[in-house]
Amino acid sequence: MVTEKINSAIEAILFANGSSVEPSRIAAALEISEDDARAHLEELMEEYQSSDRGITIIRLKDSYQMVSVKEFAPAIRTVMDLRRNTPLSQAALEVLAVIAYNQPVTKAFVEQVRGVDCSGVIGSLTSKDLIEEKGRLELPGRPLIYGTTENFLRCFNISSIEELPPLPEDDKKEDDSQEMQMTVEEVIEKATEE
Fold it and tell me: Strands 55-60, 105-106: parallel, antiparallel or unpaired by DSSP?
């Protein structure tokens, strides 16, 4: 198949599917290698991002999806008569952060970190498709474990969890260790001066 035809076929697949598609499925459908499918997908992503279009292609973990450009969200909402989603509460953001940075985690872990019951918040985040059950731990009671979803990546406009910013606590630990190192150096200087 000619490159232009492959790109057109990939566009059609992404558009018709409506959700994310793995390169392996595209490769199987078009009878090309998975590496070729990835190369065509990346080429299409660049083409969409470099032109002034209302749609673009994004990568979510190891899959690709065709989506509308953010700047047209108000017009799309108006046409589709969608009401604006209510923003997440502070509690929901905290629970989501604990899960995103430590996944997979149990409800008990989240509650231990936050110090309060999180059942309602976890239910709310699950219904918004930002987190999902990822299985059960092999412990007494077999507690559920939770992790983030593809929708979480889409909402936060990231391709993978690795793109999350570092935790402030990590920066603080680095600063503390640098301060500690400076203190040790100062002590050594003072000792040698005396």
Answer: unpaired
Alpha-carbon distances, residue 119 vs 4, 113, 124 (angstroms)? 51, 14, 9
Helices in 18-167 by DSSP H: which ranges?
23-30, 34-50, 73-80, 90-102, 107-114, 119-127, 150-155
In CATH, what number does 90-163 get?
A: 1.10.10.10
State residue 75's pLDDT score.
85
Q: Is the pLDDT of residue 159 over 90?
A: no
Strands ordered across the beta sheet of 105-106 = 105-106, 144-148, 131-136
d(CA 15, CA 7): 12
CATH of domain 3-72: 1.10.10.10
pTM confidence score: 0.56
Tell me the backbone φ, ψ of residue 51, rounded to 5 degrees: -105, 160
